[in-house]
Automatic annotation (TrEMBL):
Taxonomic lineage from the root: Eukaryota, Discoba, Heterolobosea, Tetramitia, Eutetramitia
Protein name: U6 snRNA-associated Sm-like protein LSm2
GO biological process: mRNA splicing, via spliceosome
InterPro entries per UniProt: LSM_dom_sf, Sm, Sm_dom_euk/arc, U6_snRNA_Lsm2
Pfam families: LSM
UniProt cross-references to SUPFAM superfamilies, sorted A to Z: Sm-like ribonucleoproteins (SSF50182)
Compartments it resides in: Nucleus
Provenance organism: Naegleria gruberi (Amoeba)
């Protein structure tokens, strides 16, 4: 869990799409993330405005980590090699 917390902290101020377990997808700027992977988004836009018109007014939101299904990240901002190395180190540490 600490690995992902550290990883998401590097993406603060980047645009992400958060898909929730209830099928709502929100696009916004990652403002913060905590150790429970709760996220705070700024400049929020709902992806399907016709299906969720009541969410169009939201500009900032807090999302509980347990309600998140996926977080889509910009490919250019993800260092996959560093992430793989950190995952390997974490796995070896737990053995």
């Amino acid at each position: 869990m600490v690995l992902f917390f550290s990883f998401f902290k590097t993406l603060v101020d980047k645009e992400v799409i958060v898909e929730l377990k209830n099928d709502v997808s929100l696009r916004g700027t990652l403002h913060s993330v905590d150790q429970y992977l709760n996220v705070k988004l700024n400049n929020v836009q709902v992806e399907d405005k016709e299906k969720y018109p009541y969410l169009c007014c939201i500009k900032n939101c807090f999302i509980r980590g347990s309600t998140v299904r996926y977080i889509q990240l910009p490919a250019a901002d993800v260092d996959t090699e560093a992430l793989q190395n950190a995952t390997r180190k974490e796995h070896m540490r737990k053995k």
